[in-house]
Hints:
alpha+beta; endopeptidase fold (from Nostoc punctiforme); 7 strands; globular; disordered C terminus
Amino acid sequence: MASPQQEPKPGDLIExxxxxxxxxxxxxxxxxxxxxxxxxxxxxxxxxxxxxxxGSIAVVKQDLLKDVLEGCNYRVNNxxxxxxxxxxxxxxxxxxxxxxxxxxxxxxxxxxxxHFVTKLRYGRSHCxxxxxxxxxxxxxxxxxxxxxxxxxxxxxxxK
Length: 159
């Protein structure tokens, strides 16, 4: 369900590839998207932590996709269509437009831009990105523990 640089249709989820993370938006037609953004502008494409401060406030914005891209690549990514039935396009678009200008709490873990757009498309929040990041951190922690364990065993053996 994910296609690089595919021409989006109204109601499609847009995954934007930033350095270190993905930003998500909902395509509403005529080149426009609705997305969560910091109150003072877009997250910088070169700064993966620019919009992940705990307790942040986000604002729902309607912008041209080309402006939100900031030179980054994107793809249409409706990968959850196999798991959840999308709401009717008219409902998705009208719900999104009603939220434009509203401020919302933002959390990298539970209230991020991917949660926001999946809630609009499917009626439920979902974020694969957070799960993937947690798995990567867990894998790194397991490797570090294994290295530490081996190092301790070698030190004990040498004594």
